[in-house]
Structure formats: C-alpha cells, structure tokens
Amino acid sequence: KKKLNCIKKRQPWRPVAPIMTRETLSQFFESNSDYRYMLFNPKVKKSKIKEIPAVIHIDGTSRVQTVTEEQNDKMYGLLKEFSKLSGIEMLCNTSLNIKEPIVDSPSDALRTLKESNKAKYKIDFLVMGNYLIMNK
C-alpha cells in the first residue's frame, strides 16, 4: 500500500482495494456475496485483520472485487499463482493513473509507466493484453 500510494502520489491514509478469487471471500470477510464491481464494503473478519492490513479501511471494511475463472481467467490464474507465493488468493487493486484521469488507452498506460519513474518507487511491469512490458 505504501508503494502504491507513493507511485500514485496520494495521501498515505487512502485505501487500496483487494481483488480476490470469489471462492476465498468468506475466509476473510463477513460475507459470501459476489462483489465483481467494487460497489460494497464488507467487514473484514477480526481474525484476518493482521493478514491483510493494506486493504482495510479505518472502519474495518474493504471495497472488495471478486473474480471467478469464468469472469476473467487471466486474473483468476494470476491470483492462484500469487497464492503459491503468499498463501492468499488476493492482490491490491487500484486504478491505473497518477494524478490524472484513469488510463484509457495504450499510450496513456505507457505514459503512466514512464511517469512512475519520478517517484521513490516505480511501476515495475505493465500488462496490456498478451504483452508484458518491463519498466527500465
């Protein structure tokens, strides 16, 4: 969260949302609903607060986005692979922009990637479609 807020040049208290597999939602949240559009803020289970502090708002909720393999097989696969490293099928989820409107084109994305080099931390990689772009 600290790195994301630094890259995006935002205040440190600004929340970051989690994106996670649908089937693991009830392990972390007091809900078992489908949150594919980040419109609701379920409560984090008290037993999980220390595991996912980067995505918890001050009131103990998170603006969750869930994903199934049918909805987005690439993101689902990424979450599954990340869980092999972390033990959690969850990543931080935030808009792709730095002090400007959300990226809306490949040229916007490349400009944002380059702009991130001006911060203490930078965006290391950018995925666009089937392309992986490494920031040097």
Give descriptors for this structure.
two-stranded antiparallel sheet; 136 residues; 15% strand; three-stranded mixed beta sheet; 4 helices; 2 domains; single chain; DHBP synthase; alpha+beta
Predict the CATH topology of the largest domain.
DHBP synthase
Q: Helicity range of the residues?
A: 25-40%
Structural category is alpha+beta
Q: Tell me the domain tally.
A: 2
Whole-number average pLDDT? Answer: 92
* Strand residue percentage: 5-15%
N-to-C span: 22 Å
Task: Give the topology string: H per helix, E per strand.
Answer: HEHEHEHEE
The number of distinct helices, counting runs of at least 4 residues, comes to: 4
Could you give a short description of this structure?
The chain has 4 helices and 5 strands.
Topology summary:
Layout: H1 2-7, E1 17-21, H2 25-28, E2 65-67, H3 73-86, E3 90-93, H4 106-115, E4 125-128, E5 131-134
Parallel strand pairs: 1-2
Antiparallel strand pairs: 1-3, 4-5
Structure characterization notes:
It is built from four helices and five strands, in the order αβαβαβαββ. It is of the alpha+beta class and 136 residues long. It has two domains: 77 residues, DHBP synthase, CATH 3.90.870; 42 residues, no CATH class. A three-stranded mixed beta sheet has the order 2-1-3, with helices on one face. A two-stranded antiparallel sheet has the order 4-5. The chain is globular, with a radius of gyration of 15 Å.
